[in-house]
Amino acid sequence: MTNIILLGPPGAGKGTQARRLVEERGLVQLSTGDMLREAQTSGTEMGRKVAAVMAAGQLVTDEIVIGLIEEKLKAAKAKGFIFDGFPRTLAQADALGALLKRSGQALDAVIEMRVDDEALVDRISGRFTCGNCGEVYHDRTKSTAKPGVCDVCGSADLRRRADDNAESLKQRLMEYYKKTSPLIGYYYATGDLSTVDGLAEIDAVAKSIADVLDKAKGA
Ligand code: AP5
To answer: Is 14 a catalytic residue?
Structure first.
């Protein structure tokens, strides 16, 4: 098993790199952001509850996201998992440790993707994704070959997220610094933390992550 956490602020490139790791290493991506957006479209009570919280850029409760991850870990048979956007609080980190331990698993690496705040604003404001296959694009740095059509699946369902606006991003960053950034110290203390330069080009970031994982496997 290979279990990895991608840790970083909104727009750091977690989703972009997670998709590459799925392709290259056959791991399963567990994105709590994607799960919560899916819940919103399913019309459930929980979906309605989280929609307003997410639009405002605040964190959904630990209870809800830990429940989602627990369900997925039970259901999926995998060579390993990429935790993308989870954990985001110390309580979530403790819960993940306990869930993995219970199933006889461990973390192989926690990869902090370091990016400065100015770059995040540019990345978030230019982002769009394919509603069909989830491929992530950017107006300037990673556009589609044919305007309005996904390169991967050919869908014309290209979307921008409701929380990708300046006001919500400010709140998301505040939540990150107050509640998620303490996890950098937490995982440094457990000995699992590695840091990569998230400001580098997408291929260069992927190479740094591959180096960390190869080192962790060889250790
Ligand atoms: P979530 O969906 O997890 O969003 P996020 O953490 O804010 O992260 P993003 O998806 O915005 O960014 P990313 O790091 O994946 O970057 P991406 O690869 O897309 O969470 C949304 C909301 O759900 C939260 O605000 C919260 O309300 C709730 N939530 C989720 N998980 C929760 C949890 N555990 N607990 C509580 N609440 C939770 O890249 C961004 C852009 O940059 C793209 O356009 C991409 O093409 C471009 N790009 C990527 N890499 C590079 C590069 N190296 N160079 C240039 N451009 C790049």
So the answer is: yes
